């Protein structure tokens, strides 16, 4: 059944382009419904553009500023098992160093002390808290630091006390913010206990800790948890944090899938850079692994054009993907596997990651985990058949810094 659903999602890729900025090289894939042989494909380019000429017509791909095709560098290359469906070409590009610093989509990197911020529900853009000026913006210890305490101490855990923010603090976790409640919370937030999982009730070894969920009073979206009477935990996928500028009205709510994709991608890139880790275990708040991610690179530039859209005079901005995307095309390239997959190969991968403690924990609400998996699978379906899987993993791209992310399944 799952295979039928995946087949329905995928579509014939007419032209697919992946460039690597660091390697200054690229792969061009043309479907055989668009061109039958390598001689049918002519590639040329100018400043920040690539022109692909096929029997179907010309396709102009707009590349990011500073990236340009090196004339005469496009050569056919073997397509392996996909030679019956795809034509593969290798090419070279030149990349000029950018002097402009890209704006970050990572709220963890943009929050600063002594700046004024407003917090909105991502679902309905209702203002959740009074404008805040933080005296301190501090990172919390690594997400799994509690598990390491036994290795550090020979006496009872001295860190058992919760780390909670003071009135004008903002504490940053890997995927959440810890903030003090204010008077407006009574009108904008609701708190209710989450039901206990029936499996946890039956498992006597597990402590049945009831979680107090915090939701938006306007749209009922779950935003996080009440970790103490005066402290709320807000997940970065559920809130929009902006600098307060005068009486400016909040913009309309951003596309949900795009927001989740960009937010998670930016956070993965931030964690990878700061901790030198490339394996991530996306988990629900109760510690159950939901999705395993392996970050391959963050310098890919991609464009994917369906076979039905190749031909005519239209110019396609890079990348044309499963959802509306910004003009820039830098993506994260990931391998992924779902922990709910019951196949033997997939279970072996999940068991190996768990047994060897592979993967930095990235904790998100269950609904967000499901949304992320859907975004990942949609992204995977836009790739050529030859690029959708690697061994037992699947590949996908993830939006990052206003750009995109590419993923493969395992």
UniProtKB/TrEMBL annotation:
InterPro entries the record matches: UBQ-conj_enz_E2-bd_prot
Name of the protein in question: E3 ubiquitin-protein ligase E3D
EC id: 2.3.2.26
Assembly description: Interacts with UBE2C/UbcH10 (E2 ubiquitin-conjugating enzyme). In vitro, interacts with cyclin-B.
Protein's organism: Eleginops maclovinus (Patagonian blennie)
Catalyses which reaction(s): S-ubiquitinyl-[E2 ubiquitin-conjugating enzyme]-L-cysteine + [acceptor protein]-L-lysine = [E2 ubiquitin-conjugating enzyme]-L-cysteine + N(6)-ubiquitinyl-[acceptor protein]-L-lysine
Known role: E3 ubiquitin-protein ligase which accepts ubiquitin from specific E2 ubiquitin-conjugating enzymes, and transfers it to substrates, generally promoting their degradation by the proteasome. Independently of its E3 ubiquitin-protein ligase activity, acts as an inhibitor of CPSF3 endonuclease activity by blocking CPSF3 active site.
Regions annotated as coiled coil: none
An MF annotation (GO) of this entry: ubiquitin conjugating enzyme binding
């Amino acid at each position: 059944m799952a295979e039928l659903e995946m087949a329905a999602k995928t579509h014939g890729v007419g032209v697919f382009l992946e460039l690597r900025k660091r390697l200054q090289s690229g792969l061009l894939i043309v479907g055989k419904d668009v061109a039958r042989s390598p001689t049918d494909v002519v590639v040329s380019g100018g400043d920040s553009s690539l022109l692909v000429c096929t029997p179907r017509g010309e396709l102009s791909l707009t590349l990011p500023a500073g990236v340009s095709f090196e004339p005469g560098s496009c050569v056919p290359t073997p397509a392996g098992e996909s030679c019956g469906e795809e034509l593969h070409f290798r090419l070279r590009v030149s990349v000029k160093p950018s002097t402009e610093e890209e704006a970050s989509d990572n709220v963890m990197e943009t929050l600063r002390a002594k700046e004024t911020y407003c917090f909105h529900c991502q679902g309905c853009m209702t203002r959740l808290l009074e404008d805040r000026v933080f005296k301190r913006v501090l990172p919390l210890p690594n997400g799994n630091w509690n598990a390491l305490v036994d290795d550090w101490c020979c006496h009872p855990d001295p860190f058992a006390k919760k780390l909670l923010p003071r009135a004008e603090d903002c504490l940053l976790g890997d995927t959440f913010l810890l903030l003090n409640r204010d008077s407006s919370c009574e009108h904008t937030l609701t708190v209710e206990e989450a039901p206990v999982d029936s499996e946890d009730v039956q498992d006597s070894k597990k402590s049945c800790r009831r979680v107090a969920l915090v939701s938006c009073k306007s749209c009922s979206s779950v935003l996080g948890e009440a970790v103490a009477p005066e402290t709320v935990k807000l997940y970065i996928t559920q809130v929009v944090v902006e600098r307060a500028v005068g009486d400016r009205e909040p913009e309309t709510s951003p596309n949900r899938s795009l927001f989740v994709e960009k937010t998670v991608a930016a956070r993965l890139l931030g964690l990878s850079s700061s901790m030198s880790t490339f394996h991530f275990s996306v988990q629900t708040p109760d510690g159950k692994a939901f999705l395993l991610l392996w970050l391959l690179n963050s310098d890919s530039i991609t464009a994917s054009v369906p076979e039905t859209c190749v031909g005519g005079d239209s110019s396609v901005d890079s990348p044309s993907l499963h959802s509306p995307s910004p003009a820039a095309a830098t993506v994260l390239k990931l391998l992924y596997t779902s922990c709910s997959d019951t196949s033997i190969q997939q279970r072996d991968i999940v068991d190996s990651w768990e047994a060897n403690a592979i993967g930095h924990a990235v904790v998100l609400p269950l609904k967000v985990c499901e949304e992320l998996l859907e975004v990942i699978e949609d992204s995977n379906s836009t790739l050529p058949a030859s690029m959708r899987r690697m061994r037992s993993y699947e590949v996908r791209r993830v939006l990052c810094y206003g750009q995109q992310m590419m993923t493969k399944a395992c």
